[in-house]
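Chapter summary example: a protein plus 2-acetamido-2-deoxy-beta-D-glucopyranose.
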Amino acid sequence: MASSSLIFAISAIFFALRFSSAHSLTCTSHKLPGKDFPNCKDLPTLGATLRYSYNATNNSLSIAYMATPAKPGGWVSWAINPTGQGMQGAQAIIAFKSNGTVVPKTYNISSYKSIVESKLSFDVWDLSAVESDGVITILATVKVPGKPDQLNQVWQVGPSVTGGRPDKHDFAPANLASKSPLSVSTSTSARENTTTGGDKNGGVSVTNNRFGVGFFAGLLMLVASCVNF
Ligand SMILES: *[C@@H]1O[C@H](CO)[C@@H](O)[C@H](O)[C@H]1NC(C)=O
Ligand SMILES: *[C@@H]1O[C@H](CO)[C@@H](O)[C@H](O)[C@H]1NC(C)=O
Ligand SMILES: *[C@@H]1O[C@H](CO)[C@@H](O)[C@H](O)[C@H]1NC(C)=O
Ligand SMILES: *[C@@H]1O[C@H](CO)[C@@H](O)[C@H](O)[C@H]1NC(C)=O
Ligand SMILES: *[C@@H]1O[C@H](CO)[C@@H](O)[C@H](O)[C@H]1NC(C)=O
């Protein structure tokens, strides 16, 4: 019967959404212990969050980036690209487990082929990383390169690290779309506000890399074809 397959398809979607959201972070699902930030955003892909506070007096930006590596033993990364959008030119902080401890390192990603551990083109201080329940948090304060209302952020998660070097990440749609403009100059000075209102991409983070966009498109097509019967 068409209606029973429709019900099946709809329950499959709800199940998938529930299941995948368990692997995906949001500002409300994962608190940051210890430190308060006035702003938190669910990033549009890869189930990552960015907490931040901007200090206009000395043009500094403190961030806490939370994400789950693509596989246990993998890496997470947050970057500002002062010269463009996307990975090429990004000044990245990458954190991964090294000898049992999570360490943050800085990389100059001048091209896809040249990911060199180096100082960044802007000052970074108070850099640290912690892991809890498989979630890695990068904490850092950076001197904002350029205008605080026109930053380009890039983030990523990767599956593995070989010889102290992060291996290539997947090239699924979620991995390729993980960049967005970031405006920190209008940040509130209130206590951490975990509602995602005002973040137009807030709800998208349930499509993580385990069930990519294609998976959901497939389910929607299944529903559509059921309705046609
Ligand atoms: C902002 O930076 C200035 C200069 O370092 C400092 O005096 C001030 O306390 C900072 N404000 C906050 C809210 O941290
Ligand atoms: C800027 O302000 C932040 C926050 O108060 C502080 O941690 C940092 O040391 C200051 N940096 C400079 C370069 O003054
Ligand atoms: C990053 O690498 C590019 C290309 O090698 C170089 O021109 C640039 O100066 C580097 N930036 C930093 C901050 O090291
Ligand atoms: C891990 O520990 C070994 C032995 O202490 C050391 O030789 C190696 O350099 C460490 N690796 C990293 C990436 O720190
Ligand atoms: C949190 O943010 C939402 C949406 O921007 C806003 O409606 C709400 O008033 C804020 N709550 C607090 C306590 O600032």
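Key point: Helices lie at 2-21, 173-176, 213-228.
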